[in-house]
TrEMBL record:
Signal sequence range: 1-24
Alphabetical keyword list: Signal
Acetylation listed as a keyword: no
Phylogenetic lineage: Bacteria, Pseudomonadati, Pseudomonadota, Gammaproteobacteria, Cellvibrionales
Domain of life from the UniProt record: Bacteria
The protein's name in its UniProt record: OmpW family protein
């Protein structure tokens, strides 16, 4: 009984020490912390600068038929136009998941404001009649771009400034297309006449890449400032349908002109972000 009273106070601290060393591993070090997953949400303003491109519009119907006098059928053929949309502001939102320290996967959506632009050049039919004059800002549309990226972060996660670069795929669609100032110069009155019509831009899949940086407010803060520059590869079909009526003959006509337009915008983002993480 006396020996028990002596051994218990001595063995208890020794047992606790042996237990802590055993749990720390063979080398006596504490086990590494469990892996951390990080999530980020960013939102802000996007400045969208589309590409200026020369487009050849070809008339898919190729001819303006004259049912009464077929010998006066007029060949419309093709003409050139410069598509030069204005730069506009929009907004963006993206979400990113970082399953490991230096790699992340993000999904981004950018909604652009209304772009307007375009400069048509005049052309003549085979009889020498002018069918177009100087026309500016004949096209309007709003782009929506959705993109998925694989991002690489070169610096240690403990750094307050986190640059990154990413590559991925984008899907671009267009809405609110509108055709303005589309018509001809009447050779008999020498006045410009606008025809009703509609504009359509096709959707597109392409590649995209980005360079960005997150400025963290502090090691214990979840808030950050985000800056990024993004390039989208967007090659879209642009179509113009025009409708007009030959009043003396009461004949209605429709013509469709089509061409390929390289939208290819540069986008500059500035926004705020919030991050959070958990162990798994």
């Amino acid at each position: 009984m006396k020996m028990t009273r002596i051994l218990i106070p001595v063995m208890t601290p020794l047992a606790l020490a042996i237990s802590s060393v055993a749990s720390a591993g063979p080398a006596g070090y504490a086990p590494p912390p469990p892996p951390t997953q990080e999530f980020k949400i960013r939102i802000g303003a996007a400045y969208i600068s589309p590409n200026s491109d020369n487009v050849t519009f070809a008339d898919s119907l190729l001819i303006w038929p004259d049912p009464i006098n077929p010998e006066f059928n007029r060949q419309w053929g093709a003409f050139r136009a410069n598509i030069d949309p204005s730069d506009e502001w929009g907004w963006f939102i993206n979400a990113e998941w970082k399953p490991m320290d230096h790699w992340g996967v993000s999904l981004s959506y950018t909604d652009g404001d209304r772009h307007s632009g375009g400069h048509r050049r005049g052309w003549h039919d085979r009889f020498g009649l002018p069918y177009d004059g100087r026309r500016r800002n004949f096209a309007r549309w709003e782009p929506q771009m959705t993109a998925a990226y694989l991002n690489w972060y070169p610096l240690d996660p403990s750094c307050l400034i986190q640059p990154y670069m990413g590559v991925g795929l984008n899907y671009t669609d267009f809405s609110s297309e509108r055709l303005r100032h589309w018509g001809w110069i009447n050779p008999f009155t020498n006045r410009a006449e606008d025809w009703p019509g509609r504009l359509n831009l096709g959707d597109n899949w392409g590649y995209t890449w980005q360079l960005g940086v997150d400025f963290n407010f502090g090691h214990d803060s979840s808030w950050l400032i985000n800056l990024a520059v993004i390039y989208y590869d967007v090659d879209t079909d642009i179509e113009v349908d025009t409708f007009f009526t030959d009043v003396p003959r009461q004949q209605s006509y429709r013509h469709r002109f089509g061409g390929d337009y390289l939208f290819d915008p540069w986008v500059f983002n500035i926004g705020v972000g919030y991050k959070f993480d958990f162990h798994w």
